[in-house]
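pinging the channel bc i need a second pair of eyes. not urgent but kinda urgent?? the chain im working w is below, pasted from the shared doc
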Amino acid sequence: MAAPDHGPAFLRTLERAEERLAAVRALRARLRRIHRLQAAAAAVALLAPAVPLAGAGGPGGGRDVWIAVALLTTAAALAVLLGLWSACARPSRRRLAAQERAMLADVNRLRELFAHVARREKWDASRTRSVRERLSRFPIEEGSL
């Protein structure tokens, strides 16, 4: 990749960083949805053992059936929880970290070069303000989005 030390390369790098910012935000939203599903599965796994107590109260309640249902439900909920973690949450978290690191590396380089490029390329006030505004949308450090 060419160094973003002149106008067009600087703006291309900024556009790529903005695309990565959108990807980071999408991955964070995905992780929030995964965490909600994991919380629901954990709640089911924790509450399922209470089913035999509630369902076996009547005469001939079939307590054994309720215990089997509770155990199967708990096992299924734990399997869903583990599956969500291994198939969705862990890979998404890794992708998020990689995207965020790459984005911040580009943006930090752009922040360092911004004043120099704007002065050398003789950017007008509106372009300078626009680029400064675009750069301000990015976090300062990893994990601060």
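so The helical segments are 7-47, 51-55, 63-121, 125-136. and The chain has a mean pLDDT of 90. — does that match what u expected or am i reading it wrong
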